[in-house]
Amino acid sequence: MKSRFTYLIWLGAFVVFLGAMGCEKQRVRVAPKFSSYPPFLAADPAEVDELLSEMSTDQLIGQMLILRVCGEPSSQVYQWARRSTIGGAIMYDIGLKRFLVVSDSLRSIAAPLFWQGTEASFLLNNQFNDLPVFPAEATLRVSPAADTLREWLSRIYPAQALASGVHVSFSINVPKDSLSEENCATTVCEELDRIIEFNRRHILSMGHSLRPSLFTTPRDSFRVLDSLLRPYRQLIRQGIGGFWLDPAAVGLSRQPAGYAVKLLRERLDFSGLLAGETTTPAMAEALLIAGADLLVINDDPLLIHQYLRRLVRSGALSRATLEEKVRRILLAKVWSYQLPEIQEGEVQDGLQTTFSKTAPKPPINRDRVLAHFTSEDWRVLQHRISEASLSMAHRHRQLPLSGAFPRLYRIIQYGGGPAKSFTQFVSRYARVDTAYVLSDTRWKTQLRTELDSFKSHHFILVLDKPEGWKPADTAFLSAIARLAKQVPTVVAHFGDEQQLEQLDTSYAIIHAPERTEDTEALMAQLLFGAAAGQGRLSPALLQRFDYARFGLPKVLRLTYSRPSTVGIAPEKLAGIDAIVNSAIGKKSHAGVPGGSSQKRADYLF
To answer: Which of 28, 141, 604 has the alpha carbon at shortest distance from 388?
Structure first.
């Protein structure tokens, strides 16, 4: 029982650590030791051979197909699993509890060895549609505690996968950089560490992806090809289970059959799996010709399944080649269904109970997994990461805004949908006259009207252009620079930091790498000194906006936040609500307006 909440305690401690951390110094990370080639190759071949001997051609083909399932699976998915039409599923955009129930159901009816996969990048949290969205890569990258946080996530994600019954992760990134002799580039280290943790838990790791340049570079250009292959070689030495085939690399002209496998076998001594995504039978055939073992599909698998069956019957896909591919898959599946080699008494990050080395993986402990993912500590962590990713750039101490009466603010937006949460929170600190989204075709007229009629306003401009600036946006950005010279203007920018290079230095800028309800609320509070962004802008932007001259922003006003962010357990506030609502109803406190029941939306600290 003591170990039951070990992980939650660890998560809480990390939240406290992140909150207390200011700016993390860049640490030199030592490269992890290389382990071995795909560990699933050490699985018992006798068990696999026995499985192969009992499988029909249809069952062999089904082992190669992995179905993506968005939302609640239909009854057909269960039928396909029962009939061995598919050998695994990748479920996403589904509730956590339903995911656990469906995973158990599919494994119980499918035979043999049904795989549950994931394509989540950092954590499983975002795979479930009833959990708060965890910050994206862009947000993590600019956090002052980025290195420590990402190193921590490299250990937590595999533990989550093991506890949730995941067998294969299609999420390893292939870095463009390679490992130096002594030290480790951050991106390389993260992927190498993650492979180690996945292998410890007998979860197959698949890397994105074999790039087209590997197959278009002349074979006699040894130096160039070796440079391209170096990151792959390091992942292979670490024990990665396989790679995706880039769709652009499939079906290249003048390439012999099995060219992807040949490159990996001859140049890198790799014997793992290859996977590819297919939407048509022709694409499935091209992937098989290139050397793919697994085919990931989004729609009805019967069309692909029947096409492959015809290839086998016609001899275009020999039974021997089919069995060779499925044998590798089954070796990986047998290995992924085994328990990791953990010493007696060791606990897997508080999520896995103690077990012996020889028993199969136990059923999913739903209560423990639910307790982990629904812990309030996750909300606190996500809130603090989002707040720490915010940054501000201004030259003349224009921030924070005062919001003092009778000043009026007008919020106008360019790109994206209405920033409702942003507007709501700005209204809590200042008087907002109105907020609207500029028309792509009428913005010139709209801005001209603003200047003529509302020169007493202060403007807050929300920019949300996730696809990047287009030539048509240049005129708009120039117009905003002119507007800022006549009326006090602040720009709230969501998206890629590089877009800030196109903005002017005449107005203040606040920036968030991604736009969510949480970051909208935090950006509004940053404007008025109620949040402290610590995002790391690039040196060029720091110099351009003289941001470094003023240092990091400080919290100067009361902030709106969740109770747990200041150490108050939400369940302890239930009684407080009852007391406050009762007092309001009875008019028992001086200064409390009576006659109306007020619903608590959030807490003010």
So the answer is: 141
- Domains defined along the chain, listed by start: 2-337+344-381 (3.20.20.300), 390-555 (3.40.50.1700), 568-604 (no CATH)
Biggest CA pair distance of the chain = 89
Six token digits for residue 501: 């290079």
pLDDT tens-digit readout, 400-425: 887 666 778 888 888 888 889 999 99
**CA–CA gap between residue 136 and residue 122 (Å, rounded):** 9
**DSSP designation for 415:** S
**Phi (first) and psi of residue 492, to 5 degrees:** -105, 110
Neighbours of 585 (CB within 10 A): 13
pLDDT tens digits along 306-329: 999 999 999 999 999 999 999 999
DSSP string covering 560-592 = EE-GGGGT--GGGGHHHHHHHHHHHHHT-STT-
Q: Is the dihedral of CA 131, 136, 139, 145 positive or negative?
A: positive
- What's the one-letter identity of residue 153? L
Number of helices and strands in the chain (H, E)? 22, 16
Sequence-ordered strand ranges (E) for 252-390: 273-277, 294-297
Mean pLDDT of the chain: 79
Neighbour count for residue 30 (Cβ, 10 Å): 10
Q: What is the CA radius of gyration of the chain?
A: 28
Beta pairing partners, 494: 464, 512
Q: Determine the 3-state secondary structure of 137 from DSSP.
A: helix
Residue 99 has pLDDT above 90, yes or no: yes
Of all residues in the chain, what percent are helix, strand and coil, respectively (each to 5)?
Answer: 45, 15, 40
- Whole-angstrom CA distances from 307 to 65, 226, 283, 313, 316 are 12, 37, 11, 10, 11
Cα 387–Cα 393–Cα 397 angle in degrees, nearest 5: 105
* Angle subtended at Cα 156 by Cα 152 and Cα 160, rounded to the nearest 5 degrees: 170
What SS3 class is residue 206? Answer: strand
Find tokens 């937590």 and name the residue: 156
Q: Tokens in use for 538? A: 């690039």
CA–CA separation, 547 and 51 (whole Å): 64
pLDDT band with cut points at 50, 70 and 90 for residue 115: very high
Tokens 């006699």 correspond to: 220
pTM (predicted TM-score): 0.80
User: Please, which residues have CB within 8 angstroms of residue 427's CB and are 6 or more apart in sequence?
Assistant: none
From CA 560, how far away is CA 556, in angstroms rounded?
13
* Distance of alpha carbon 372 from alpha carbon 123, whole angstroms: 12
Report d(CA 20, CA 479) in Å as an integer: 42
Q: Which two tokens stand for residue 175?
A: 């870095």
